[in-house]
Fold SAM-dependent methyltransferase.
Amino acid sequence: MENIDKEVFLAPSIRKHYILYVIRKALLNAVTETLPVLKGTLVDIGCGIKPYREYILENSSVTNYIGVEWEGTSYHLRVKPEKYWDGKTLPFDNESVESCMATEVFEHLSNPVQVGKEAYRILKPEGVLFLTVPFLWPLHEVPYDEYRYTPFSIKRILMEAGFEENSISVKATGGWYACLGQMISHVFGIYLPKGLYRKWLIRFSVPLIEWLQKKDRPPKKFTDHVMPLGFSVIATK
């Protein structure tokens, strides 16, 4: 099960991972783009099954990966984190690590500013926090689904956590076409009742979603009528 789970993160295929293909492809791209700035000891906050661990260690300057997870989650039953935490205080000394990451975690936090402050506290000067959050995504892990962020709110939260405004970079992980492809896969793959009708719709939609993915251009500016799939954020201490 662990290998199957990691495959959707590291090698997403529309035919094997129809419902998750668009978002996982976007997140893998975001991780890949961030690899050059990750280094030293990296703390993965809310690491889950640690899907990117080997990928990061093999393709970046990270030398020590530490996964941190809540003890009450089901993830650690299959994959043990290196450390547990209470969702409030990270178990590390001040200015003790070079990198932090939190992929698809902040939308589940009731205290994002507090966690942002903790990441800031444990980072060394010039250390980097990398995080991703969804914008267009169904309710999930209910009732622990707290927020959908705009680029303005996530930047404000990180500034309240201690990061300087000019040290925070927010990018969209996808645009209108990616959002449309994601919605098609969710409507056909989740919402429609099972049966031949849904099976054929899924089959015929595959080339359309692939085309949408190729044509998608994530917005570079956040103005009225922009539709982002989600956000990738880098903040430097």
